[in-house]
Amino acid sequence: MVDEPNKPLRAEPRHSAPSWSMKEPVIVGSVLGADYARLGDEVADLTDAGVGRIQWDVMDRRFVPNMTFGPDVVAACRKYSRLPFEAHLMVQDPDPVIADFAAAGCETIIVHAETCAHLHRTLSTIRDLDAKAGVAVNPSTPLDFVRHVLDRIDQIVIMTVNPGFGGQKYIAAMEDKVAEMRALVDLSGSPVKIEVDGGISTTTARSAWYAGAELLVAGSAVLSHPRGKRTAVAELHAAMTRSAPAS
């Protein structure tokens, strides 16, 4: 869920350069907004472009307004990439479909904290399927719950847009939530990975990284780039290390 791929870098990030990691974040290629008539080829193109993972934005028209695809589509595309798949389940009741997406080839299953009545149980179910367990939080959802399920989580997704649509504007205020999660992870010594999803572009990628993200989901900025996906991914990496203009 991304937008504005070609705007110049904004002012310096609100958070200082990341001392917690010397590594640049992994770019996660979202297929939301891809050409669904040639989805396998789109997955292969994202792989060749240099993303580190493929994210499947699964929507049910209940938790979010749109509807996308089910596990059969994901399974059909598994052969087009060697990269890890992650299923971001933006669905009202994820429990009945978790096993289906794991069987379809998704190494990571992400559920929304807002949709799970028994989040600890749901995360445990994901791990019982030998998948990595992720939890996503909407912009308005506080992180109070996280410390109580930290031992069940492999990945947390901080939404920097409201879920349901691609091409939305990045909510910069969520960087404070990313930084809050970074501090909690570092203090606990947990191996939980922090992902940011929504509005990632050359304008926003570095700020999300500086706030504490290790995984950045990019959709529109990659899929809609006028010079192609490979150029888009290269520009995202370049934006991470380029000096910002003087204010």
Brief summary:
The chain has 247 residues and is an alpha/beta fold. 29% of the residues lie in helices and 17% in strands.
Structure write-up:
The chain is an alpha/beta fold. Helix content is 29%, strand content 17%. The protein contains 8 helices and 8 strands. The protein has helices at residues 39-49, 71-77, 98-103, 119-128, 175-188, 205-211, 220-223, 229-241, and strands at residues 26-30, 53-59, 85-90, 108-112, 132-137, 155-159, 193-197, 215-218. It has an 8-stranded parallel beta barrel with strand order 1-2-3-4-5-6-7-8, surrounded by 5 helices. Helix 5 (175-188) packs parallel to helix 6 and helix 6 packs across helix 8 (229-241). The two termini are 28 Å apart.
Primary descriptors:
disordered C terminus, globular, alpha/beta, 247 residues, 29% helix, 8 strands
Task: Chart the SSEs and their pairings.
Blueprint: E1 26-30, H1 39-49, E2 53-59, H2 71-77, E3 85-90, H3 98-103, E4 108-112, H4 119-128, E5 132-137, E6 155-159, H5 175-188, E7 193-197, H6 205-211, E8 215-218, H7 220-223, H8 229-241
Parallel strand pairs: 1-2, 1-8, 2-3, 3-4, 4-5, 5-6, 6-7, 7-8
Helix pairs in contact: 1-8, 5-6, 6-8
Listing every helix as H and every strand as E from the N terminus to the C terminus, the arrangement reads EHEHEHEHEEHEHEHH
The portion of residues forming beta strands comes to 15-25%
Strand arrangement in the largest pleated sheet = 1-2-3-4-5-6-7-8
**Rounded Rg:** 17 Å
Oligomer: single chain
Low-confidence stretches: 1-11, 243-247
Query: What summary fits the major beta sheet?
Result: 8 strands, parallel, barrel
Mean pLDDT: 90
